[in-house]
Design brief:
The chain has eight helices and no strands. With about 180 residues, the chain is mainly alpha-helical.
Length: about 180
């Protein structure tokens, strides 16, 4: 049975045909992912995830590209998603470490570390920055827009929405509901 017959049957729910397709492409996919990840265990894990995704989405395969190309596309997207997750996790960890260091430095210098700063630390920097510039340093919306390279209206919106979020978080910390 050729690949096209296997695909046709697999799309109709034939698990044996799908199994055969996956077996035929498994080593090819592992080798590809080994070259991409340079890590055998990650390559194996991604291959498994790709196979699972293929099983779930076989009905979406349209036959415009080779089946192996479709699998590579799935595998590549899974790898890219994994890298993005790792980068976000790394950034979060770095931010947490920096925050702990700032708290420690504040304690050493007998400076107050408020709940507001804890809440601000949880907000995306695109929102945190205009709030800090406006309410800690007194810049105008227009000045903040120039500093950040965004429209004055965008600054107003970010400050307004950001402050609502800060108030909500502080109220929850204090057990108060709006």
């Amino acid at each position: 049975m050729d690949e096209k017959d296997l695909i046709r049957k697999a799309k109709k729910g034939d698990t044996l045909a799908l199994s055969k397709l996956l077996q035929q492409n498994y080593s090819f996919l592992v080798k590809y992912l080994m070259k991409v990840t340079l890590h055998p265990q990650i390559a194996e894990d991604l291959t498994q995830e790709t196979m699972i995704k293929c099983i779930e989405k076989i009905h979406l395969y349209n036959g415009e590209s080779k089946f192996s190309s479709w699998l590579i596309t799935i595998a590549t997207n899974l790898f890219i998603d994994q890298q993005r997750r790792k980068k976000r996790e790394k950034n979060w960890l770095e931010q947490e470490q920096a925050l702990r260091k700032m708290k420690w430095n504040a304690a050493i210098m007998n400076e107050e570390w408020t709940d507001v700063l804890d809440v601000l630390a949880q907000i995306n920097e695109e929102i945190r920055m205009p709030i800090v510039l406006k309410h800690y340093y007194g810049y105008s919306y227009k000045e903040i827009g120039k500093i950040m390279g965004i429209a004055e209206g965008t600054v107003k919106s970010r400050v307004s929405n950001g402050l609502k979020s800060v108030r909500k978080e502080l109220a929850e910390l204090e057990g108060v509901r709006f």
